[in-house]
Amino acid sequence: MSDAANPPVDDVANEGNDDALGAFASGVETTEQFPLQVEGLRKSFGGITAVDGASFEVEAGTLTGLIGPNGAGKSTTFNLITGMLKPDSGTVTFNGEDITGLEPHEIANRGMVRTFQIARELSDMTVLENMMLAPKQQRGEKLWRSVAPVVRDDVREQEEELLERVWEVLDFFDIDHIAHEYAGNLSGGQRKLLEMARALLTDPDMLLLDEPFAGVNPTLEKKLLTHIHELREQGYTFLLVEHDMDLIMNNCEHVIVLHQGKVLTEGTPDDIRSNEDVIEAYLGGNV
Ligand SMILES: Nc1ncnc2c1ncn2[C@@H]1O[C@H](COP(=O)(O)OP(=O)(O)OP(=O)(O)O)[C@@H](O)[C@H]1O
């Protein structure tokens, strides 16, 4: 755990509240403040150690960037967090629960989702059909945040409710006008919006975005960023892997730098920009 992500106990003690100090020390406070905690994560593929004891936390309600030179271990870290890969050692804690080694759908059920590229078979389905599939694949029992949860036995009513929610999310992402278009016909940017919309439909607490802007034109990139910031303001937490450094620096409030499978440093964009170790790691990494 880094100093930057884990405020000193003195900060809490300064509030003059012994209970708060006790809660912080026991981890209760930390869990709420930092829903994702990664501790000593390690993963090797044969002789290559892709992730080598990475430890970090992600603060609730932030847009946190995970950066690093090519091969630093970013994708592997994402895969370990979301259950796509099992770590050799280390732990992943989400909302206070040890989720290390759980299956991806079990992790999604707990409120952490990762955006996925639309699979080839889903390209033959319309945007609307893709959306209707999303919650069944992942987290159907929780509702889109702005709609009050209603428990009903009637399947048809549930379908209608889902459809209503789907339209709300499509409208939020401004892709309702392409609802009947085949996913395979969408532009790169529209597909990214659909991927985000599908993830959001499961009503997660936290979204992990792996290069959400790759292949997205500047207009749609701006739109996607606006949506991400709106959602962050609503309290969603984001962890973002992105190669576009300007985009990370201009949009994330906290940046974690991975290098050779370890956290090299973390801090605000200004801290990172002026950090000589980071500059050296990137130059050495030929980026
Ligand atoms: N399945 C695998 N089998 C063997 N080696 C792997 C595998 N996945 C990743 N690696 C290796 O682990 C290291 C970290 O890879 P990873 O893809 O996590 O890095 P990254 O930071 O996401 O890189 P990039 O920015 O280039 O996408 C690299 O050396 C990579 O070649």
From TrEMBL:
GO terms for biological process: amino acid transport. Keywords: Amino-acid transport, ATP-binding, Nucleotide-binding, Transport. One of its GO terms (molecular function) is ATP binding. Residues 36-285 form the ABC transporter domain. GO terms for cellular component: plasma membrane. Residues 1-20 are annotated as: Disordered. InterPro entries: AAA+_ATPase (IPR003593), ABC_AA/LPS_Transport (IPR051120), ABC_transporter-like_ATP-bd (IPR003439), ABC_transporter-like_CS (IPR017871), BCA_ABC_TP_C (IPR032823), P-loop_NTPase (IPR027417). The keyword Endoplasmic reticulum does not apply. Probable component of a branched-chain amino-acid transport system. Belongs to the ABC transporter superfamily. This is Probable branched-chain amino acid transport ATP-binding protein LivG.
